[in-house]
Amino acid sequence: METISIEGTPKTPTIIFDTGKGFLEIKGRSIPENSIEFYKPLVDWLEKYAAKPQAATNVNVQLEYFNTSSSKCILDVFKKLEAINKGGSTVVINWYYEEDDEDMLEAGEDYQAIINVPFKMVQVAE
Amino acid sequence: MLDIYDFYDKMERNNIMLSFKGDITSELLTSILQIMESKLDNLQEEPKIKKKVYNVLVECLQNLYHHMDEVAPEENDAIRSAIFMIGKLDNQYNIVTGNYIKKENVEGLKKRLEDINLLSKEELKEYYKAVLNNGEMSMKGGGGLGMIDIARKTGEKLNFNFSPVDDKFSFFSLNIKISQ
After folding, report:
1. Which residue among A35, A36, A110 sits closest to B129, beta carbon to beta carbon?
2. In this structure, which CATH number among 3.20.20.80, 3.90.79.10, 3.60.20.10, 3.30.565.10 belongs to the domain B4-179?
3. Rounded to an integer, what distance in angstroms lies between the CA atom of residue A121 and that of residue A106?
4. pLDDT tens-digit map of B101-151
5. Is the ipTM reported for this complex over the cut 0.90?
6. Closest residue to B142, CB basis, from A68, A75, A101
């Protein structure tokens, strides 16, 4: 079991994946021009993790901005989590949005409607 | 010789905050976004408006960026060039972009934008989810969500135009309004 992390940049989020604790966090901004390239390592780690997941997997998604190029990649990440949830690990996705940021709340609800994993919408102060 | 005062005056009257003409690179986008973010901070915009403007700006600029590749690298620099402006007039942000597009792609894009303009807020939400989940990825990952997202976030119809240039190209312009 290991912790994998990617440090954030002005265009890409910080990612921490503690496979021993079953904890994944995506935090910051996700506005790269080429998001497929950026998200590929995370999708690959989740694939590996899916073979031997923890009993519970907690996911925090706290994005300030994300572009449409990232949105399909984030869906791919969630689809991997959906498979992990089906495969025996209890997955919860905590979707953070700042108070007043209706667009971010709606974006979370869009994913919630597509992905068969429990979502928790968590409001935070600006 | 270009009349720079006339140019200045037009920009002043339209309250242009930032404009650029040329090749759109990833580094340029980073710089433009940094400049615009600090300008929005200086204007002390509500976080809600600031985020909306920033988000729409990202989509507009990345549309231009991805489009550069499509116009084909073999074309000369002028054809690969694009224009971008953002201004604020009467409490409304205006983002204008312009870029060359191959003639054969005009009809397809026009149809796509007209279709988006027919949709209500609720229909846009459903359409966005359908395209998000259709399993198709464009090379860069956008997969055709940009314009739907812009229409959804601004709550306005997409205002666009195609001007014929020559037998190979047209000039596509998009005018986005973000109201307070």
Report:
1. A110
2. 3.30.565.10
3. 10
4. 999 999 999 999 999 999 999 999 999 999 999 877 655 555 689 999 999
5. yes
6. A68
